[in-house]
Amino acid sequence: MTDPVRLAQRVVQLLNCSRNEAEHYIRNGRVSVDGEIVELPQHRVSDERIEIDTRTPPGEVEPATILLHKPAGVDAIEGPDPAVALVVPASRWEDDPSGVHLLQRHFHRLVPLVPLEREASGLMVLTQDRRVRRRLVEDADDIEQEFVVEVEGTVAPDGLERLRDGLPHRGGLLPRCSVSWQSENRLRFALKGVREGQLQWMCGQVGLRAVAIRRLRIGRVATGKGPNGAMPPGAWRYLPVGERF
């Protein structure tokens, strides 16, 4: 048995590359030890079988941003049933079009953003990327969100116009927004600066009761559709490089 060495050192020997390149191959999940991907350059190896995927040039590991279809009854940010617990390798959407190589490090220190009520469902964002976090926190009131709301009741005669024009709320007026019927009991909202409980309150002001809320889109990013239909509740996909909110 040979003396144990760092995996990065073994990769340097096998590829005749720099230590920096070797560490990039490992951190990008391109190196396996006896058939198991190892992402830690300091992992010790001796006589194990080392395989290296050199088809993709080594580069810096980009922080991950994950788009989850949150089911109703799951806490988005705080609570006993956090949505982040759903983000595991096995629940990745089979039609994820991003092409991002799955890494174990992508599931560490994910920050949930853009609140969504526990009983609502739909798109939510979890990220390791400070740039995404800054965009969704600092520019939150400028980013349009789209929802579908199932309602009960009879809408007031001028109800849609009042919703669109901006209802009086907490001493001011809500911003103008887009509201339209999708079916006889389903409204589509596209609005900015939405706050917790706002959609339920807005519906109540025009004689309706919101019974289910689903977020379809944040900015330009939607839940996603693939060959087998929309991404289902509980599944997630990566935000591809170049896709912006």
From TrEMBL:
Keywords: RNA-binding. Its EC number is 5.4.99.21. It comes from the Bacteria. It catalyses: uridine(2604) in 23S rRNA = pseudouridine(2604) in 23S rRNA; uridine(35) in tRNA(Tyr) = pseudouridine(35) in tRNA(Tyr). InterPro entries: PsdUridine_synth_cat_dom_sf (IPR020103), RsuA_PseudoU_synthase (IPR050343), S4_RNA-bd (IPR002942), S4_RNA-bd_sf (IPR036986). It is an enzyme of class 5 (isomerase). Residues 5-62 form the RNA-binding S4 domain. Signal peptide: none annotated. The keyword RNA-binding applies. The keyword RNA-binding applies. Pfam families: S4. This is Dual-specificity RNA pseudouridine synthase RluF. It comes from Cognatilysobacter xinjiangensis.
